[in-house]
Design a protein that fits this description.
Blueprint: E1 4-7, E2 15-18, E3 32-34, E4 40-42, E5 51-55, H1 62-78, E6 83-88, H2 92-101, E7 108-111, H3 117-122, E8 125-126, E9 131-132, E10 135-139, E11 145-150, H4 160-171
Parallel strand pairs: 5-6, 6-7
Antiparallel strand pairs: 1-2, 2-8, 3-4, 5-10, 8-9, 10-11
């Protein structure tokens, strides 16, 4: 079932977000994304540790760049306690190029370009422009969402302090 709801994407006006608006306490939906080598990575591959899932429209924009670099820096200190993911609809080749150019090595950067199934499951797929909207999810080791932030404006950054506080709660 596809759920559509109105969402903001400020420079284009209101757009349609495909998928549910997830809440704290929901079970994180399954997903399969592609890594830079076109290998599938699923939620099931990331068991045993909490996850921080950072969702961005495109790595080649300033706010997405800043958000991904920031979470990559945080992952350096916490990668043994949590999985850090960045999800976008960028092609895996573009993601690999961006990671190399920005020295991003700790966070996993994954692509939803193939079918936007992550976006549809997590409520981040912007229908009209086929990109992800900015969002952050913290999922505990049992697969339950402990923090959700759907960022309302494309040029706005997430609340890093709130995200990291939630992550620290689930990583002990």
């Amino acid at each position: 079932m596809t759920v559509e709801r109105e969402g903001a994407f400020d420079f284009l006006g209101p757009k349609t977000l495909v998928g549910p608006e997830l809440k704290v306490g929901d079970t994180a939906p399954d997903f399969t994304l592609l890594n830079a080598k076109l290998k599938p990575v699923s939620k099931g591959d990331l068991t045993g540790k909490p996850m921080l899932i950072s969702v961005v429209p495109s790595l080649d924009t300033s706010v997405c760049n800043k958000q991904t670099v920031r979470f990559n820096e945080e992952a350096t200190a916490l990668s043994d306690k949590a999985h850090f993911l960045t999800v976008s609809a960028d092609l895996p080749f573009a993601q690999a190029r961006w990671c190399g150019a920005n020295d991003v090595k700790t966070i996993q950067v994954l692509s939803d370009h193939r079918d936007m199934s992550f976006g549809a499951a997590y409520g981040t797929h912007i229908k009209e422009v086929r990109v992800e909207s900015r969002a952050v999810f913290v999922v505990d080791a049992n697969g339950v969402i402990q923090y959700v932030e759907y960022v309302p404006q494309a040029g706005q950054e997430p609340d890093y302090d709130a995200v990291l506080t939630a992550l620290r709660k689930v990583t002990g």
